[in-house]
Amino acid sequence: MPLRDLLTSALNAQLRRRIRARARARYLSRQRLAGVSVRTTALIVASALFMEQLDGTVLATALPSMARSFGTEPLRMNVALTAYLLSLAVFIPASGKAADRFGSRTVFRAAIALFTVGSVLCAQADSLGFLVISRIVQGIGGAMMVPVGRLVLLRSVEKSELVSAMTWLMIPAMVGPIVGPPVGGFLVTYLSWRWIFYINVPIGLLGMALAGRYIRDIREPGRVNFDLPGLVLSGISLGCLMFGLETISRGVASVGWAAAILVVGIGSGALYVRHSRRHPQPVLDFRLMRIPTFSLSVVGGGLTRISAGAVPFLLPMMLQLGFGMSAASSGLITFASSAGSMLMKLAAKPILRRLGFRSTMMWNGLIATLFLASFAALRPSWPIAAIYAVLLVGGFFQSLQFTAYNTIAYADIPRAQMSAATSFYTTFQQLNLTLGICVAAGALAGSIALTGHSHPLLPDYSAAFLVVATISLLASPTCARLPRDAGDELSGHATPAQAVAAVTTETADAGSVV
């Protein structure tokens, strides 16, 4: 046989072996992933959410110490929180399309890596400006990390399992806020605020390893049209709106300059709405707002999340600057709210099954708002046990509200639109959290200006808490517009009419058997 034929035969044999090896590897991978439970997937996705929540809560505890390190006023440090949330709002719209095009596992792991790199940069910051830039890098990673992980979970479960899946998703995410304040307070008090960012490194590396082994690489079948003009317009709109509001709340620019930024944001938003009506796959699809359960969750949840974004900014600052506590002592108190959230996860499914989504969201929203308003009455003279009790119970009811919002939002979304719905919902979720910080800072600055104080005092913090509680109060009437049977397939709740119908059907069936 000629040498050329021998070489060709050898190369073909080697190619066949490689093809068989790759096919076997793909088969083994599918077999391994087929055995991964919904609980395992939810917990892995939640590890990313845990890292993000831990980062946010430890940063809130460290803000006064970081302000002293940078030689700036504590009130101006809210730009470090806003920059991250603003980055999320700008880049989250692209997360669903990126996952559909490049694969959910690829995007999820890359997002964790970018978030980890941003954490290292934050730890190296020697000025507020460098910290803000580093937080933006973190935000780009977070913009892809959490919504893509949630998308994987939504595509992996049946609707009847959605409440349980969301509960498992939120458990590790609640651990972050629980351990964040005391860990952050300990690091700031006894080491350095820079360590609050270094602790993200091992968590990020572990998350990347687990995602590579257990997360399915889900892609949307067919051609994915990436809406680049839409992303630019929505990014300019969201960025200008948030930056303008944040500028006004801090009072660092003239009213005319801030108003000009807001006008650009509103104009870009109008252009985007016009563009989205013509594009077949817009980056933010407002047609989803035609689905009642989704639109009401976006609007009602948005009002509630404004208060949720304000509390991590106001509460640690009030305890440290108003009560005179150290960062460590403040952290040991603020974690009580997150502990209440953790306890709620055990009760969410039974409550929703018993009362249904509509009744739960209406009345629980009122209770959560009342406890939020009670934060305005906290004073150094209160017994520590009483402060713990208010924060614990308030955290319980607020977390129940968010679990209901996050679940009912996807109750009627077709599976093909899950990526678009996840991007849309998460974008406005982060937008409202950012707005909450701006509202809190603006209310605090406004109270200081009206009272003539040189720095915020306890009555100023009380006024700010009452302002955000008033906004949260508007969510309950919105929830009242939900249909009475909304989400019953998810919760297992049966209305009296449905129960009677079920009994009648069973009786008829029994009669036919007899």
- Specify the CATH homologous superfamily of the largest domain: MFS general substrate transporter like domains
Overall pLDDT confidence: 76
> What number of structural domains do the residues give?
2
Sheet/helix structural class: mainly alpha
Tally the helices: 19
Rough outline: globular
Question: Which characteristics define this entry?
Answer:
disordered C terminus; 2 domains; globular; mainly alpha
Summarize the structure in words.
This protein is mainly α. It folds into 2 domains: 34-214 and 283-507, MFS general substrate transporter like domains (Growth Hormone, Chain: A), CATH 1.20.1250.20; 227-282. It is built from 19 helices and no strands. The protein has helices at residues 3-34, 38-70, 78-91, 95-102, 104-123, 128-154, 162-190, 195-198, 200-214, 228-250, 255-278, 292-322, 327-374, 384-408, 418-451, 458-473, 475-479, 488-491, 496-513. The N and C termini lie far apart (83 Å). Residues 25-36 and 496-514 have low confidence and may be disordered.
